[in-house]
Design a protein that fits this description.
The complex is a heterodimer of chains A (93) and B (933). In chain A, 22% of the residues lie in helices and 37% in strands. Chain A is of the alpha+beta class and 93 residues long. Chain A starts with a strand and ends with a helix. In chain B, strands 8, 9, 10, 11, 12, 13 and 26 form a seven-stranded mixed beta sheet that branches. In chain B, helix 17 crosses helix 22. The chains are: A alpha+beta (93), B alpha+beta (933).
Chain lengths: 93, 933
């Protein structure tokens, strides 16, 4: 792995500075049924293509942010802080 | 004028050889008439100079103890000790050359078919084969004095290859205003132009001067780009240094090399590639003595022949494979429609056997050298590695790019372009495109070479091997694989190029397919009756060129992170032996853990716990955050109190344990285990990111505080001497968290007891850690204070059945089964892991972490198995002899059916089963009186 990620805070850094946080998932309601929770805990889509996922800048600013990465080529298409993403969604509504 | 060449002397197998200044070892040996340089891998056939460019395996020798050095690329230095390899007792008389006659016993893949029966003989065969296999030997006594390191570089455009094409590409990109790094594997730029005077013109000197003086071009010579990784991350070897170059755009102008012709005995010394002959002539100023026969199907062969003749070499004939000459041969005679089918000679070529291409009568021409110029293999490895797709183009007789990977360009012979003008144009175009990708608005180009395609001059269709049934027609020089071996392997069913490679080992030697892969593919296609395009290629992987492991390692050993507590030097002086806890160094013991243990139980001890993770949380919403992250209840945690808690993940798995202290209304001080500190820091930050509505500030203060734990019946007496605070149980009860000065330093003091004695955990700013530690040790002298290490701490806590997260727990542990059910407050509406823990509670625990006691003093190993009815049922996680319990005590995971107080479990130790009794109560002070006094 030798690609680079554009940290929303720090800019372009080598991937070794970050920790992968898994694909973005929605946490079920506490009262959701067993299928929903099992899916959330144990199943993954393993997307072959562009995946929305979490990254943690462990060696520097220690911020968690979102990235869109093409899992076929490890090209990171976009990165965005979580707050910015939420605001964008709120704005779109 | 002073003497031009002083020269030097070196030894080759004990023989003194003269070398001119700057001459390669190979050239010096050539002048000294030493033409046999090595013995081949399998058959131990004599081998000599062939490619003269560091690609074939023929000249590998040991130089000054370093094995497998390509002496055709290594400059001779005074007193160098050069030794040939893979021969015994000598190069001239190698006992194992008898294997050449036994080739019938060693068909392709013979080791898969022979030598495994009878089975009992295999260890002997293995020893013998191990001794024989390999080329150079590693000097285990003297080792290798090498200094390796790494360099990181960044550039806009990397141009790989500093020949005619690369020079143009670099200049074009640099003139467009981007930074360029030009990498070439030779000590000087120019590529083929350095050893082919007909190609170079006066323009070259001009071009070179421009490149060398351009402010935006950085030239890296004598460097091999051996790998292209994601996002144009280039790995380069330059001697004993690895350069890691991050490039925005890459231009591949790596050219390629001559392809060998396959005929009988084509591996004899005296066979030379045309490029090799040119390098000998023009770079090393050597001559070929005796008659030369040139076999060719293109203009390069003619050029080489004429250049040889010009310096006085006796070129007997040009053997032209086509029916008409490919170029003007001037005075040299040409035999058309003929090819070389065999070389004759013992240790050197003595004659070439020529035959008509369509078969027929043969003629033998006595000669000492056979120069081959029958094809061209492009150096496409980096293109493959970067993700370009290539396809075989029959018009060019080579692989050519079909689609480029992002940020990759190529130009020149690697694309199949050989005409000088077209190459210059292609190079400039690639350089421009690379720059334009970075600065689109500023670049414009009018003279787009529309005539480019017509200017490309394809080479003639390939001639790979003369057709004759002879056996010793070598395709792979590194592994001694013949044409017959390839056909046999295909007959045996290894018809796919990938399986053919693995079964025959072709292209798996030092040349990595440079000499043989193209030919192997062509033969595979021919044998299968398919096209070369259909046959495909094997996957190209780094390194493109073999390199020493030291280059990959660099100085890694010196760069291992080590973290030390502020009191580290004190511990070292006190005779502590250190253990690793992640990157931290912790004192494992000072001298005698038994004495340390007794000091804590009976008097007072001091332990350095600075490595603990520490996190400060501040804000009005911290309690809400803690309620969500921990299964504990925190709503009622009062200011001035500390609590033990565990952190779980969504699956209810225990991630870490630690303490949570409320120092002020909106200020909390948390500790985590040493090993998990960074992970918990990240975990907290993620949940805070997801809940931006919470007003919580988090700071990782692990390095900011030094921490020590004073424990034992006299701990209060000692601490009392160093502070004014009221330490009585009335003012500071068990689980109190207060702030006051200790030894004049503002401290956070927690009254907690991991080791089961009256004790205080003191956190001070790390720059005062050593001062406070010394003050404590001083104050404790009257009470017989002793420092204690991790080992003593482990024993002490085990007496109280306190678990170590990550040691007694693992990735399947939930707090309900780890004997901490009181921590999980399922009546809370929501917390991380609630759903999973509720299911576990409903289902009931399947296993339980229990304490056990064994009479006697035999201590089971940690991870010793618990056996039930002959089957594995659990395991021991901690075990020690406990003086206070007078028995061996420990913790183990057992199934729920065997986990009741008083049950007997069987623990396996040294093949025997030891009975142990499950005990719920702590082994020492079960009511915690010592803690709370």
């Amino acid at each position: 792995m030798s690609f680079q990620i554009n940290c929303p805070n720090c800019g372009r850094r080598p991937v070794g500075e970050f920790r992968f946080g898994g694909p973005v998932q929605v946490r079920p309601e506490p009262t959701a049924d067993v299928e929903t929770w099992t899916d959330y805990l144990y199943n993954r889509s393993n997307v072959r293509g562009v995946q929305r996922e979490w990254w943690y800048h462990r060696s520097a600013c220690k911020s968690w942010f979102l990235a869109a990465r093409d899992t076929r080529t490890n090209t990171v298409l976009a990165t965005q802080s979580f707050i910015a993403e939420e605001q964008a969604h709120a704005g779109a509504k | 004028m002073p003497e031009q060449s002083e020269g030097c002397q070196f030894s080759f197998d004990g023989r003194t050889i003269e070398a001119e200044t700057g001459q390669t070892i190979a050239a010096a040996l050539h002048n000294a008439r030493q033409h046999v340089l090595s013995r081949s891998f399998k058959y131990h056939r004599p081998r000599g100079l062939f490619c003269m460019s560091g690609r074939c395996p023929n000249c590998l020798c040991t130089v000054n103890g370093e094995p497998n050095v390509r002496i055709c690329m290594q400059t001779a230095e005074p007193n160098m000790r050069v030794e040939s390899q893979n021969r015994w007792p000598s190069l001239r008389f190698d006992v194992l050359s008898v294997l050449d006659r036994l080739h019938r016993l060693m068909p392709v893949g013979f080791y898969y078919k022979m030598m495994h029966k009878p089975r009992f003989l295999w260890p002997m065969f293995e020893k013998v084969i191990r001794r024989i296999a390999g080329l150079g030997r590693i000097d285990r006594e003297n080792g290798h004095q090498g200094r390796y390191d790494k360099l990181n570089m960044f550039t806009d455009v990397a141009v790989v290859g500093g020949g005619w094409v690369g020079l143009h590409a670099a200049l074009e990109a640099a003139d467009a205003g981007v930074s360029v790094t030009l990498i070439d594997d030779q000590p000087a730029l120019g590529g083929h132009l350095r050893h082919d005077p007909d190609l170079a013109g006066e323009n070259v000197a001009d071009l070179l001067a421009k490149v060398m003086s351009h402010p935006k071009i950085n030239v890296v010579d004598s460097a091999v780009v051996f790998g292209c990784y994601e996002q144009n991350y280039l790995a380069i070897q330059r001697g004993q240094r690895m350069i890691r170059l991050r490039a925005e755009q890459v231009v591949v102008a790596t050219g390629g090399w001559d392809r060998p012709l396959v005929f009988e005995n084509n591996d004899l010394p005296g066979n030379l590639l045309a490029g090799g002959a040119q390098r000998l002539m023009h770079l090393d100023r050597c001559s070929l003595d005796g008659t030369v026969v040139v076999v060719t199907d293109n203009a390069q062969g003619y050029r080489t022949a004429l250049q040889l003749a010009k310096v006085g070499t006796n070129v007997a004939v040009i053997v032209e494979i086509h029916d008409t000459p490919s170029a003007d041969a001037e005075n040299i005679s040409v035999l058309t429609g003929q090819t070389v089918v065999a070389a004759r000679g013992r240790n050197h070529v003595s004659a070439a056997v020529i035959e008509s291409v369509s078969g027929g009568s043969q003629q033998t021409i006595p000669c000492r050298w056979i120069v081959q110029a029958v094809g061209f293999t492009p150096s496409t490895s980096l293109l493959y590695q970067s993700g370009c797709t290539l396809k075989y183009d029959p018009q060019f007789d080579q692989q050519r790019v079909e689609s480029y990977a992002a940020g990759t360009h190529s130009a020149g012979a690697v694309n199949g372009t050989h005409d000088l003008q077209a190459c210059a144009l292609e190079g400039r175009r690639a350089g421009w495109a690379a720059a334009a990708a970075l600065k689109p608005a500023e670049s414009s180009r009018d003279d787009q070479p529309a005539e480019l395609t017509s200017a490309l001059s394809p080479r003639a269709a390939g001639h790979y091997a003369s057709s004759s049934p002879a056996k010793k027609k070598f395709v792979c020089l590194c592994e001694d694989v013949t044409e017959k071996d390839i056909y046999d392997a295909i007959d045996e069913g290894y018809a796919n190029i990938e399986t053919l490679k693995r079964y025959s080992t072709i292209s798996m030697g030092p040349c990595q397919g440079k000499m043989c892969q193209a030919t192997a593919i062509a033969l595979c296609a021919r044998k299968n009756g398919r096209t070369i395009a259909e046959t495909g290629t094997t996957t190209a992987r780094p390194p493109e060129q073999p390199l020493p492991l030291g280059v990959l390692v660099g100085r890694a050993v010196r760069f291992n992170l080590v973290r030390r507590s502020p009191m580290h030097s004190w511990h070292a002086n006190a005779g502590a032996s250190f253990m690793d806890a992640g990157a931290w160094k912790r004192p494992e013991r000072y001298r005698n853990p038994d004495h340390e243990y007794h000091a804590v139980r009976n008097r007072v001890g001091l332990v350095d716990v600075s490595t603990l993770g520490k996190i400060e949380l501040r804000g009005p919403d911290v309690v809400e955050f803690l309620e969500f992250v921990y299964p504990n209840r925190f709503a009622k945690l009062k200011t001035g109190r500390v609590r033990y808690g565990v952190i779980c993940d969504e699956a209810g798995i225990l991630l870490d344990d630690g303490t949570i202290a409320r120092l002020e209304d909106e200020r909390f001080f948390l500790t985590a285990t040493t090993g998990n500190a960074d992970a918990i820091d990240g975990w907290f930050r993620w949940w805070l990111t997801l809940k931006p509505q919470l007003d919580v500030q988090l700071t990782n203060v692990t390095s900011c505080y030094a921490a020590m734990n004073i424990a034992g019946p006299h701990s209060r007496d000692v601490l009392d001497k160093l502070c004014d605070a009221d330490l009585t149980t009335a003012a500071m009860p068990y689980l109190a968290a207060q702030q006051f000065e200790v030894a004049g330093v503002k401290a956070i003091v927690l009254r907690i007891g991991f080791v089961g004695e009256l004790g205080f955990e003191i956190h001070v700013p790390s720059q005062y850690g050593l001062h406070v530690w010394r003050a404590m040790m001083d104050a404790g002298k009257d009470y017989g204070i002793k420092p204690f290490g991790v080992e003593a701490q482990r024993r002490l806590r085990l007496d109280k059945k306190h678990i170590l997260a990550g040691h007694d727990t693992d990735a399947l542990t939930n707090p309900l089964e780890a004997d901490l059910p009181w921590i999980v407050k399922l009546d809370k509406t929501d917390f991380i892991g609630r759903w999973s823990l509720e299911r576990v509670k409903r289902r009931g625990p399947l296993n339980r972490l229990v304490g056990f006691r064994i009479e006697g003093n035999r201590v089971p190993d940690e991870a010793a198995l618990v056996i039930h009815n002959g089957k594995l049922s659990g395991r021991v996680t901690s075990a020690r002899y406990s003086p206070v319990a007078g028995a061996v005590v420990g913790l183990a995971w057992v199934p729920i059916e065997e986990s009741s107080n008083g049950d007997t479990i069987q623990i396996r130790l040294d093949g025997q089963l030891l009975p142990a009794v499950v005990q719920d109560e702590p082994f020492y002070d079960p009511d915690g009186k010592r803690l709370k006094e």
